[in-house]
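sry for the spam today, last one i promise. C-alpha cells for design, 159 residues
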C-alpha cells in the first residue's frame, strides 16, 4: 500500500511530465509549420494598406531563439504597412496541402536576429546587411496556423 507521501510524489511527477510535454509539443508544432513553409520555398504574405489587403510573394522563413521570423527591407511597402498594422497572414501550398499562418509580426532590431536570418539566406547579402539601416526582421507573435487540404480536416496549431 502506498503512503500519502508516495501518492503526492507520483501526482507531482505526473503533472510535471504533462507540463514538459506541452512545452515540447509547442516547439514541435512551430517546427512543423516552419518545415512546411520552408519546403514550399515561396509563400504569399498579406498585409493591410488602409482598407485594402496587399499580397506578395516572399521566400524568407527562419527560426531564431525559438521564434519564427521573416525578413524584408524597411524601405519596402510591406514594412510600412506592418508598422501601421502588425497583423499579417501568409499562405503556401505544396500541391496537396496548404498552410495559412496568421498573427502579429513584431520587428526585432537586434543585429543578432538580422545576422542569423542573412546567414540562413546568404543570397540576400547582395541587397541587405545586418548593420545597414534598411534590413528588418519580424517574428510571429500570437500565431495560429491552419493546415488544410481537400481530403482531410483542418489542423490548428498555435504558438
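last one done:
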Amino acid at each position: 500500500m502506498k503512503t500519502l507521501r508516495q501518492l503526492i510524489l507520483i501526482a507531482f511527477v505526473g503533472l510535471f511530465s504533462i507540463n514538459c510535454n506541452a512545452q515540447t509539443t509547442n516547439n514541435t508544432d512551430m517546427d512543423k509549420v516552419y518545415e512546411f513553409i520552408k519546403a514550399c520555398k515561396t509563400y504569399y504574405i498579406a498585409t493591410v494598406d488602409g482598407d485594402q489587403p496587399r499580397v506578395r510573394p516572399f521566400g524568407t522563413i527562419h527560426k531564431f531563439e525559438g521564434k519564427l521570423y521573416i525578413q524584408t527591407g524597411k524601405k519596402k511597402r510591406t514594412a510600412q504597412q506592418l508598422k501601421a498594422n502588425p497583423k499579417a497572414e501568409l499562405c503556401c501550398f505544396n500541391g496537396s496541402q496548404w498552410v495559412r499562418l496568421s498573427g502579429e509580426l513584431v520587428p526585432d532590431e537586434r543585429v543578432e536576429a538580422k545576422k542569423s536570418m542573412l546567414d540562413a539566406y546568404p543570397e540576400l547579402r547582395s541587397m541587405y546587411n545586418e548593420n545597414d539601416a534598411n534590413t528588418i526582421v519580424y517574428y510571429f507573435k500570437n500565431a495560429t496556423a491552419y493546415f488544410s487540404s481537400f481530403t482531410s480536416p483542418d489542423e490548428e496549431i498555435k504558438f
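The CA atoms of residues 46 and 55 lie 4 Å apart. ok im logging off now
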